[in-house]
Write a structure and sequence with these properties.
The two termini are 48 Å apart. The protein has a two-stranded antiparallel sheet with strand order 1-2. By secondary structure, it is mainly alpha-helical. The radius of gyration is 24 Å and the shape is extended. The chain has one domain.
Length: 122
């Protein structure tokens, strides 16, 4: 049976909490309470949005399932299917061109093209 412990108001698996605190945070010299408080704050920020996105995904999947059920046994119509997926928001227009800036990144990553993986030759 899994044992839980409370950290910053979160119910956390005791083995996970102990491993993080003993083998990760202490080794890195990080404050345990600051970590758990920050993690709880991050969850408070992201969990509602994640739940909303999952609900949206479920709604879209239900619409897609219904579309296929209504057309069972009929030949596939790619144009109609694409129009349907666009209508429900599953397909969106391709965005325009954009630039990505890099700051505080080594030149080997930011500007120098070429293989980056160094593998010893035996």
């Amino acid at each position: 049976m899994t044992e839980y412990t409370i950290r910053a108001g979160l119910k956390v698996d005791s083995a996970l909490a102990n491993m993080l605190e003993r083998d990760v945070l202490s080794v890195l010299g990080r404050d345990v309470d600051a970590f758990w408080n920050g993690f709880a704050a991050a969850l408070a920020d992201f969990v509602p949005r994640n739940r909303a996105l999952l609900a949206k995904r479920d709604a879209m999947q239900a619409q897609i399932d219904a579309w296929h059920s209504e057309r069972r046994g009929q030949p596939h119509d790619p144009a109609a299917y694409k129009a349907f997926l666009t209508e429900i928001g599953y397909l969106v227009p391709e965005p325009g061109d954009f630039n990505i800036g890099t700051q505080n990144v080594d030149p080997e990553i930011a500007t120098m093209a070429g293989p980056q993986l160094v593998v010893p030759i035996l």
